[in-house]
Amino acid sequence: MKFLILALLNISLLLLIKSFTSLVLFSIFLSVSSFFLNNWLVPGGFAWRNHHGYSPLLRGPAGWPLLGVLPQMGSLAHRKLANLAVSLGATRLMALSLGTTRLIISSHPETAREILSGSSFSDRPIKESARLLMFERAIGFAPSGKYWRHLRRIAANHMFSPRRISCLEGLRRRVADEMAAEVRRAMEEKGVVELRKILQKGSLSNIIESVFGCSLEKEEELGLMVKEGCHKLSSKVRGIVGQIVQERKRSVAEVNNNGGNDFLSALLALPKEDQLSDSDMVAVLWEMIFRGTDTVAILLEWIMARMVLHQDIQAKVQQEIDACIGGGGGSATQVQDSHLQNLPYLQAVVKEVLRLHPPGPLLSWARLAIHDVHVGKCFIPAGTTAMVNMWAITHDPSIWKDPWTFRPERFLEEAEDVSIMGSDLRLAPFGSGRRVCPGKALGLATVHLWLARLLHRFRWLPAQQHVDLSETLRLSLEMKRPLACEVVPR
């Protein structure tokens, strides 16, 4: 009997211990659940856990614990973010978490203007990769302040002034002729033109000579470094660009002549009190190469894809060019910058492609709130990263009629001109406000001239394979599959 009682006591004790363990585990589960409910399931997710009480009007997805919406992003992030904003009724402003980074995204012109044009978001968030690429000493990433304002003045008055752009026209014409020759050669040898490589090569040559005033033996190497965009290459960049700067400085000192219309000559010709250090010059020039090489090529590939798909619109542009300067591509007169103002339909085509396929759909690089601020009626704490989804704005049916239709005529029918230079936030592919792209005028001059010359010389036709407008977001929004087409000399 004694043994039976002891056995029952042991069983009771074991049951009690098991019950206590279950209670502890349940308590832990409740604590963990409470933590995630309070710190994860808030509008915008984990990074907003300490701020959602101050911003009750902000909407946004909770995302994944600790990771936020990072797992949902990818090569079509601009589309996913646009759909997310619409589904949550948060097009004006949406809160997100990218890991532990607090983020807001505007998909509406009004809140986009507040972010881009106000002084509250005058800085950019600088990651370690940007520092290693020396961008924190270049125009795009340098913190707002005396040095950054100095760079902006140099860019506006010396590097991208109307006079400098005009002086580089001869280079743009020559590169256009070289690309046309490559197009003709490719058609003769292969029966098809793969345009991407031709445009990339021409764009690289153009930017290298614009920056340094001459072609380089290591031009191809610099092009590969731009494509890789890897911070591990920063020492190599310093070596190559730094050596060019040193050689040019010695040359200028020997002949006492700054000469040249290139960017490096512009920097070396600055008054002594405005001159940059060698390391800062390397950073500025490298940023010009890095940001200026692919954008023109990517945009032109999108434009030519549209011209191949829309033969009626291509013919209309060609008729406009012929009426302006005379017969087809075999005529003695070729398109020059002075003709471009008389080609409104061609300019409308470029605008429509920038609307449908903006190279920087999320306006490339973000902004940073330098102090607490209200955007619309929403409180945004200092240190919040802000982005504008320009792709979402340019595809919004409440802003654009038939937004998915390629129709350049919309820009000629508007009662007032839709500027793409940053003043109209319905279409601001180069950004707006203090951080607007300083090279926008040069980039557009290049695209307009090259497009006019390519369309003047050739008729562009579809190849056997279908033109695929699928897109992928890397550093810029590119065609997923390179354009292949056929050409017939005009």
From TrEMBL:
InterPro entries: Cyt_P450, Cyt_P450_CS, Cyt_P450_E_grp-I, Cyt_P450_sf, Cytochrome_P450_78A
Species the sequence originates in: Corchorus capsularis
Keyword field: Heme, Iron, Metal-binding, Monooxygenase, Oxidoreductase
Gene3D superfamilies in UniProt: Cytochrome P450
SUPFAM superfamilies tied to this protein: Cytochrome P450
Cofactor names: heme
GO molecular function: heme binding; iron ion binding; monooxygenase activity; oxidoreductase activity, acting on paired donors, with incorporation or reduction of molecular oxygen
Keyword Ribosomal protein: no
Family: Belongs to the cytochrome P450 family.
Protein name: Cytochrome P450
Residues at which heme binds: C437
